[in-house]
Design brief:
The protein has about 425 residues and is α/β, with parallel strands linked by helices. About 40% of the residues lie in helices and about 15% in strands. It is built from 14 helices and 16 strands. About 45% of the residues are buried.
């Protein structure tokens, strides 16, 4: 037997081969680190936004409870599941059963994977609204599904626009639905755009879901970060609770991305399906951090209707950062898209990057982001990472900035942007 006989097994299996091993976060995070760039790329705060988070960690540690270091319930540590059910019960106006209508997962990624894997069968179709978080399509492909993409498109070319200026073509959305459509996956507030869907837009999706008997996965991890529009939950619309699962995240709710805890909320019939995948992959999430996040939830539940509630105060905390970044981008010659929610901002680079062009191997925004990192010391994310191949042309003139950063970080970015002379 030859020494390299095992090499025939080194290729991806047929489910993963269309995806490959390229990942925007791995690539550009490593690049930012290698060049020691000011990081406005990856979406996380570089300061303590939730002041009590460490206190809750220490509180749990000081109790020295052995149970915190052992397995907990597969569908979620009961204290956390109960807190999630109580919180979402108040937010949706319905009673939610923590025992069978909540599933705690390994981040929002886990929720999405469980849902897509358990709902979709071979050759089922899933509608994905673009721009979309980059894991949606690969997870759908792994599940054997066919992705049908419906893009949001800018309706204005003014120097300053908002995420509300982006919308889908109604005919395109309606024609995407057919007898094979099993799922639609929406993200509101949207990453990277920051768009918050209006009640009318959500109702249009709801009507089509009901008409075509389609399930809805609603990724609402940025649910509490809103500026210019109220966040509406599609599960609260008539006829949608029974066909919707909602995805949430501790990383966004409590600004603790390293916690890697997410949750799925929905009718028990759908949660049962998600839980089956969860039971046979992750099984259960770490007990200790679930206990910590449960206590964080309980604190916020005690003041849910008050301004000091973090679910309310975070928007007030981030709005000045959003507005500051927008001004910096305008002064630097970029055209920002002011987000209605979330903590990302797209910016049109057309004026400052006329010499960058897409080719068969790489899009212009990716080339420009690499230039910014290597030559200017500023890290961002190319917007085409959030688009299908067929629609990358819509996103190639934009790059994504994260403004959930310490003032010192934003000041360093400001100095770079003030002197942004493209060679």
């Amino acid at each position: 037997m030859s020494d390299d006989s095992a090499s025939k097994h080194y290729d991806f299996n047929k489910k993963y081969s269309p995806i490959g091993d390229k990942n925007v976060w791995v690539e550009f995070t490593a690049l930012a680190r290698d060049y020691k760039a000011v990081n406005l790329g990856q979406g996380f705060p570089d300061y303590d936004s939730v002041k009590y988070l460490n206190e809750k960690v220490l509180e749990c540690a000081k109790e020295s409870s052995n149970i915190f270091h052992q397995y907990t319930r597969s569908p979620g540590h009961l204290r956390l599941a109960t807190a999630i059910a109580s919180c979402y019960g108040k937010l949706t106006g319905r009673e939610i059963n923590p025992l069978n209508e909540v599933l705690v997962t390994s981040g929002a990624y886990g929720s999405l994977f469980n849902a897509i894997s358990s709902f979709m069968s071979e050759n089922d179709e899933i509608i994905i609204i673009e721009p979309f978080f980059d894991c949606y399509a690969p997870m759908s492909v792994i599940a054997g599904g066919k992705c049908v993409f419906v893009p949001l498109k800018p309706k204005s070319d003014k120097d300053v626009t908002t995420s509300a200026d982006w919308s889908w073509d109604t005919n395109e959305l309606e024609s995407a639905f057919n007898s094979k459509t099993k799922l639609i996956l929406i993200n509101t507030p949207n990453n990277p755009l920051g768009k918050i869907y209006t009640r009318e837009e959500l109702q249009q999706i709801a009507d089509l879901c009901i008409k075509h008997n389609t399930l809805c996965i609603s990724d609402e991890v940025y649910e509490h970060i809103t500026y210019d529009r109220e966040h509406i939950r599609i599960s609260t619309l008539p006829g949608m609770w029974e066909r919707t699962i909602t995805v949430g995240s501790a990383g966004k709710a409590f600004s603790s991305t390293g916690a890697k805890l997410g949750w799925t909320v929905g009718p028990k019939e759908l949660i049962r399906l998600c839980q089956s995948v969860h039971n046979n992959s992750i099984y259960c999430c770490p007990t200790f951090i679930q206990e910590v996040i449960a206590r964080c939830f309980e604190l916020e539940l005690s003041r849910l209707d008050k301004d000091e509630c973090y679910f309310r105060s975070i928007s007030a905390e981030l709005k000045p950062k959003r507005d500051r970044l927008a001004k910096l981008l305008i002064d630097a010659g970029l055209k920002p898209v002011i987000p209605e929610g979330g903590y990302f901002m797209l910016a049109d680079i057309s004026k400052v990057a006329p010499n960058f062009h897409s080719d068969q191997t790489e899009c212009k925004d990716s080339k420009f982001v690499k230039y910014l990192i290597k030559e200017k010391g500023l890290a961002t994310i190319p917007n085409t990472a959030f688009y299908s191949d067929e629609h990358k042309i819509i996103g190639e003139n934009f790059i994504r900035f994260c403004f959930f950063k310490d003032e010192k970080t934003l000041e360093k970015a400001a100095e770079i942007l003030k002197n942004l002379h493209i060679d």
